[in-house]
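Input (structure):
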């Protein structure tokens, strides 16, 4: 039986990682979580992987929902393709799996360029460094997964960033993620092309009078802001001056295809 690798992505990092792991382990297929999440239960068996970003030191909400809907696979692995601020996301994933009587067999972090534009862009040189290092790490992950070894990576951030700060973020932001898109707006550069609507993985955008309007079930994936060809979408005042990020190995059509 082959491996199913489920992914969630906004700017392509997780799709890039999922595709590359699939290539390395062979006999695998990659499946977009938004495409299956509306099912009441998600039938998985054999070897199953999850690849996703980190949001506020935690899993994306849609990944939490996904784990709550899957049945017990033979071997489950998770790869966080985050921006390096891992916090306790692996422990949180483990806890969630345990509460569902699912064993998380292996878990990894891969440091990727950040797509959280309000904190600034990862410099180009650093982006290249992270992507080259990612290829190497994926080789190691593929070996561990192929041999069905149990391996849970430790958090790379210290006590403060693994426990205290994530706890604070959870209180302040995580619970409100779905409504945070209220800070988004399209500026005068918007030409009504509707790409933002098409890349949104949870159908949170509609176009009204030639401009996007955001609803309140956002995942904070930043796909709309990052893939807008006009760089017209802003989140607050700072983002207009900051360079956009999109994974160089992923095309906008793959994101549109992943979203629906
Ligand atoms: C709202 C938001 C919050 C984020 N929070 C974190 C975080 O707490 N830790 C971290 O390492 N990266 C964080 N990131 C960065 C992403 O996890 C990272 O860039 C990821 O590779 C993006 O994956 P994607 O391209 O598949 O969407 C955040 C990004 C966004 C948009
Ligand atoms: S992708 Fe950008 S330019 Fe196109 S409709 Fe959305 S905001 Fe406007
Ligand atoms: S509205 Fe934008 S940030 Fe929110 S889920 Fe859709 S694409 Fe992602």
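Output (sequence):
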């Amino acid at each position: 039986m082959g491996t199913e690798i489920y992914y969630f992505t906004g700017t392509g990092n997780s799709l890039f990682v999922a595709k590359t792991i699939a290539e390395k382990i062979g006999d695998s297929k990659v499946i977009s979580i938004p495409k299956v999440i509306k099912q009441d239960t998600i039938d998985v068996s054999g070897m199953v992987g999850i690849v996703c970003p980190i949001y506020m030191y935690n899993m994306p909400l849609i990944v939490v929902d996904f784990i709550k809907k899957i049945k017990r696979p033979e071997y489950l692995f998770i790869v966080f393709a985050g921006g390096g601020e891992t916090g306790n996301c692996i422990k949180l994933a483990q806890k969630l799996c345990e509460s569902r009587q699912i064993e998380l067999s292996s878990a990894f972090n891969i440091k990727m360029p950040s797509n959280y534009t309000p904190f600034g862009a990862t410099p180009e040189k650093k982006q290249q460094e992270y992507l080259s290092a990612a290829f190497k790490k994926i080789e190691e992950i593929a070996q561990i997964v192929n041999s069905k070894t149990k391996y849970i990576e430790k958090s790379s951030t210290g006590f403060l960033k693994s426990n205290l700060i994530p706890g604070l973020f959870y209180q302040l932001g995580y619970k409100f993620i779905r409504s945070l898109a209220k800070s988004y707006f399209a500026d005068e550069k918007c030409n009504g092309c509707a790409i933002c609507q098409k890349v949104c993985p949870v159908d949170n955008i509609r176009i009204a009078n030639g401009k996007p309007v955001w609803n309140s079930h956002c995942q904070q994936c930043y796909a709309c802001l990052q893939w807008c060809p006009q760089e017209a979408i802003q989140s607050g005042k700072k983002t207009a001056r900051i360079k956009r990020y999109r994974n160089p190995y992923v095309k906008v059509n793959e994101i549109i295809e992943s979203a629906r």
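Notes: The longest strand covers residues 47-52. Residues 153 and 203 are 34 Å apart (CA to CA).
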